[in-house]
Amino acid sequence: MPGIKDRVAIAGVGATRFTEHYEKDQEDLLLEAVEEATADAGIERADIEAMWVGVYYRFTGLSGTTAADATRLYGIPSTRVENYCASGMDAFRNACFAVAAGVYDIVLACGVEKITDQGSRGLPNVLRDSIPPFMPPASAPALFAMAASRCFAERGWTREDLARVAVKNHANGARHPKAHFRREITMETAIEAPMIAWPLGRFDSCAVSDGAAAVIVTRPEIAKTLAHKDDYTVVKANGLAVTSSQPMYDPGFDYLGFPATRMAAAQAYAEAGITDPARQISFAEVHDCFTITELLNYEDLGFCEPGEGAAFCADGRASADGQLPVNPSGGLKSFGHPIGATGCRMIGELTRQLQGRADGVQVRDPELGLAHNLGGPGAVCSVTIVGRN
Amino acid sequence: MPGIKDRVAIAGVGATRFTEHYEKDQEDLLLEAVEEATADAGIERADIEAMWVGVYYRFTGLSGTTAADATRLYGIPSTRVENYCASGMDAFRNACFAVAAGVYDIVLACGVEKITDQGSRGLPNVLRDSIPPFMPPASAPALFAMAASRCFAERGWTREDLARVAVKNHANGARHPKAHFRREITMETAIEAPMIAWPLGRFDSCAVSDGAAAVIVTRPEIAKTLAHKDDYTVVKANGLAVTSSQPMYDPGFDYLGFPATRMAAAQAYAEAGITDPARQISFAEVHDCFTITELLNYEDLGFCEPGEGAAFCADGRASADGQLPVNPSGGLKSFGHPIGATGCRMIGELTRQLQGRADGVQVRDPELGLAHNLGGPGAVCSVTIVGRN
To answer: Is this complex scored with an ipTM above 0.90?
Structure first.
């Protein structure tokens, strides 16, 4: 497959702060992110010809039409994309395809989730909403805790190995003005925190946060005429993979990584022409919904060998000044995970890093950034690679 | 915009019967539709490289990954698209874009809804799920009844004018083996039926039904090598429009038609090069969620002049042997409206009509078929035009 390598450009990005937005509704958040993105691209709202919005929960009433209404984008197509935790990045993927097909010149990919403060609508019932009826109910912490305990048993990983991820990501997030949690933590804080689902404690888990993010997608020849004419970024690859719906219920599942990530990465690397990701990828924003997930992501994404995930973090290779900085933004650990927004936020982080204007920690001279979402649970993965033009 | 005219082909179609499927779950329905479509195209399941699934309700747990699981399509991207009543047709649209972009060769667009028999999950709460929190709650019959009563007052339309649509569509549906209601009705039956929301009675309203539909999407050069090498169909246009989220709450809304339909039709006609739809479109499957909607669709789609909708039906122009047969399948009146499935079912009806193998009433020598969905409520519309290769 030819893919969309170098055929799609990112002309501008925007995001709200990710936090508990008690004073704002999802419509406010989405509009704020979109207005930042259009200003960043130097375009008017009227220049947008179509939009895709990633949103997971539907209890808040947000769909394509209401998202278009909130952002005052009347009379254009607006499609809601839902794909578990990859919802935002899959919205971006579909926007890219429409541009690569030549159907539109300038489109909007965005995502939003307003999870806290839903009043009489109540907090979302993840069990009811995300687990199909033929599966036994289990919460996300419980599912990922099984992976962690398996790594403890099989590889001798410890709660210290998990805590190092939290400490690293909070150190990065402390420097990012849009992060939910903007403070460093110590190993002791992480290890002594209350347990959520053994061995995952409070600091091994990302938070429930609200937020929105937006990306202006176009073709390179048009990006050259907009605000970032010299430093727009281009999409190198956009891999999405779905495994059977619940690998954790598959008798053959070994709990030592996620097939969806390995498949999506293989697709993305083939499309981008990447043969040695540990050397060729400059930095990555990966799905650290739990600390154990980030450790396994290193392996699944080919940043290190299988079994080396804990060492990859412990010896500083994933640190902001390491060989392959992972989650220099602070990750889901620092931002929380407003589900539909996360993927588009990550695309924005990649673009700003590549342009040398990261909001928080700036990595050194990056050429290629990778963004990764995993969800479903464990069954869908999106890997997007963005590079300088 | 160049659009996707003649760049995307339909290689095969499939659908379940639409009815109350008490013995089948959504996974059974989706698999049945997909297997019919792959057999129709003469391909293996393994030939499918990516899929898009239209599903509106999420209380049943169906998303991209679970849809892939149900259809045994492991390891490929599967994206859920939700866009109110246009969900299925928007899934098809996004599948078309990915093929037109050259990213995939053969993909699947499908849709499903299992509305009846949800057991402890209960019937869907349309008010809760579809009306955003900032809008007053109102049911679909009540909203469309306002359009009908406005037409009664403004144009002198009557319950007989509405009933003619129901009689026509039931006469067509009576001949379709996959319709939910397979019997003709009389004007008396329609007019004397219990009232739902005045002036809309039971036979002015489509039913709650279950069903699934699937379409195999590819490029013409590949369709030429598959089962329908001689009679595959091609996509001429795919227009989607979104107006402000609730035109019925817009003080300027006149209740005499739907701006979303007019905008989507204008886009589609421009893309397909159609200047006189009443002459150039051979037949249409339109969104007759209520009889009044079909009458207004005639006008909004340019099949007749504004105000002539009732006459267009009364003088037989929309009949199976008329100038422009509308809903020769029997429409939502006969099939019900399993929301995510409807759009893909319509694409299937167009293809089979153009191939001279309609399941029910076959229209005479069609060249171009049009499919139309309206939802949102009233705020999103998709118009797809399909023609012979």
So the answer is: yes
